[in-house]
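Batch manifest, entry 17 of 40.
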Amino acid sequence: MANQKVLEEYLVGSKTSYLRSDDNNGKVIMLSGKWGSGKTHFWQDKIAREELKKELKKKREVYAYISLYGKSSIEEIENDIFSQVYYDAIGGKNFVTNGFSTFTKRMKRFGSKKIANGLREEQEDNIERVALSRLNNGGIICFDDFERKSKEIDLNDLFGFITQLSLNFGVR
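Output type: structure tokens
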């Protein structure tokens, strides 16, 4: 328990703590422990509280929680990040997004597959554009369930991807 207190203080204990500081110097952290040891619980209960998320939002920084469970490629992970960042930027999955999705599904059903695919691609481009813009402000991305990631994802590639996020976007 004492170790958790020290870690909590280091990560979010003050305005200059690691996750609250705007300067990460390209560093990332990893909480390691056996499966079921409480890493996710610690993160969600002690670190990623609403207070921290509100601070990030006020600075227009991102927060994303990515479970690696079921992901079979870096691209899937990237898409999950983009989706979470996009929906956070627009204030949640809204009426327009839901309506757009329904509209493209119906277009496909009625034989307008090319139009529907074009609209879907346009929406995906917009999601990527908004997400990249938000990511440029920095923020926090938590990757969970490393032990449950697909064997198709090479661990070195995943660590390289995470390092690039940190270096290119200043995320912590």
